[in-house]
Design a protein that fits this description.
two-stranded antiparallel sheet, 16-stranded antiparallel β-barrel, 22 strands
């Protein structure tokens, strides 16, 4: 086991401890830079490390994507957000906007296609998370919120912004069962105090505008669903959304099935692109048990016609807010990955552009970290249990906030086919275990 990650963890914890001061945790921090017209500017920096107790030869934490490089400290996100948010309590006409950009290792996998995804080969990359205009139109029912431009998906429980998640690591559902972002128009109609109806059209999952070398955005894709708010005396909320459309790349690059590298030759036109549909279905049920305990359960299903893959699962979160500074959370998840021949959704990237390449139809540089024959069908049930805490120290600067999130996670395969062993990859590139244990901690400094 390398010593460097332990030093990184210790340094992060010591630095966070020295920041503790006298500001009250229940005080909302004033804006760091006051802005007119209701605009706000805020941001954060997140860095952390994940210790893979097996110390595999490829240094990969299989199944974990944003923090997929083990035993290494990385700055995942340096995010800045300028926005004028809509006020949900104002029933009149409103306008707003949101501009959000990010630099860090998370940008490797969150790119809009064709936007900064070729600006560098480094693990540290730039990305646009959101660039949109918004309005509240008080003309139908209780009003309709409209968003036009580029925006993070409203589907699912976990989000790209690290400050909106309970853990440093992500669920299988978040990465393999959901879109990240969209380019298009999205409406939310508030029928009454309980029911919201969602409807949107966009160019595709993580897609921008344009055709050359990109994923298929020839036809618009649809996002739709409903939200139920304030059920059971305000304790229960449900958000059920879907996204459907042809996502298969219009172009593809042949790869060697053994090395997963380009086999040579120009890009070929994928004649079946418009008939191959990708479907995402997701429902998040949140129940506020009392002031301290909250339970959230996410149900997910995804179907990819081109890859002949059906996947999805269930993740349950149970959170306990001990006080204003400490929150403890557990996550239990099962994610089924089924394929009839082209490989499953759960993979790893062997370089910094691997995920984007795969989605764009280029040589993906993806690997399974195991002795998998991608020419045969398989059915694998991945599972994980994560226990973690969030500590928010009080700081001497009222405009600054911080959080430290340690966690321990256990991943394993329940069942599976063909002797799948994706964990603890040896020098020959072959997985040797059906489970892994990881220890992780990240530190978020925000304003």
């Amino acid at each position: 086991m390398r010593l460097r990650p332990f030093v990184s963890v210790a340094a992060a914890c010591v630095a966070a401890g020295t920041l503790a001061g006298t500001a009250r945790a229940d005080d909302a921090p004033p804006p760091l830079i006051p802005l007119p017209y209701g605009m706000t500017l805020n941001g954060h920096i997140e860095g952390g490390t994940t210790i893979n107790t097996d110390d595999p030869d490829n240094n990969i934490v299989f199944g974990q994507t944003f923090n997929d490089r083990g035993n290494t400290f990385r700055v995942n996100q340096a995010m800045l957000t300028l926005q004028k948010a809509l006020d949900p309590k104002d029933a009149g006409y409103q306008w707003g906007f949101k501009l959000q950009g990010m630099y860090g290792t998370d940008s490797r996998v969150t790119h809009f296609f064709g936007e900064f995804d070729r600006s560098t080969n480094s693990p540290y990359q730039w990305d646009i998370i959101e660039a949109n205009v918004q309005a509240h139109l008080p003309y139908w029912f209780n009003g309709t919120d409209v968003k036009v431009g580029q925006y993070a998906t409203p589907i699912g429980y976990e989000v790209i912004d690290a400050t909106g998640n309970p853990f440093y690591s992500h669920s299988y559902i978040f990465f393999y069962g959901l879109p990240f972002k969209h380019t298009g128009a999205l409406t939310t109609t508030h029928v009454n105090d309980v029911l919201d109806l969602w409807l949107g059209l966009d160019t595709g999952v993580n897609d921008s505008i344009g055709q050359k070398g990109m994923a298929n955005n020839q036809f618009p894709k649809a996002l739709f669903g409903f939200g139920l708010n304030g059920l059971m005396d305000g304790k229960l909320t449900i958000l059920a959304l879907a996204h459907i459309g042809p996502e298969t790349s219009r172009f593809f690059e042949a790869t060697n099935p053994v090395t997963n590298q380009p086999a040579g030759g120009p890009l070929a036109v994928n004649v079946g692109a418009n008939s191959k549909v990708v479907q995402f279905y997701d429902a998040v049920v949140t129940y506020k048990i009392n002031d301290a305990w909250t339970s959230t359960t996410e149900f997910n299903y995804v179907k990819n016609d081109f890859l002949a893959v059906s996947a999805g699962g269930v993740a349950t979160y149970l959170s306990y807010a001990y006080n204003d500074q400490w929150t403890f959370t557990g996550r239990a998840e099962a994610f089924s990955d089924q394929s009839t021949g082209l490989g499953g959704l759960v993979t790893i990237a062997t370089n910094s552009t691997g995920y984007v390449n795969g989605a764009r139809g280029l040589a993906p540089s993806l690997g399974y970290g195991a002795n998998i024959n991608t020419g045969a069908a398989y059915n694998v049930l991945y599972s994980e249990i994560t226990l973690g805490a969030t500590y928010k120290p009080t700081l001497p600067w009222s405009q600054i906030n911080a959080a430290i999130r340690p966690e321990i996670r256990y991943d394993t395969i329940i069942g599976g086919s063909r002797g799948l062993k994706p964990f603890d990859v040896n020098a020959a590139g072959v997985g040797t275990k059906t489970s892994q244990v990881t220890l992780a901690v990240d530190f978020i400094l925000g304003f």
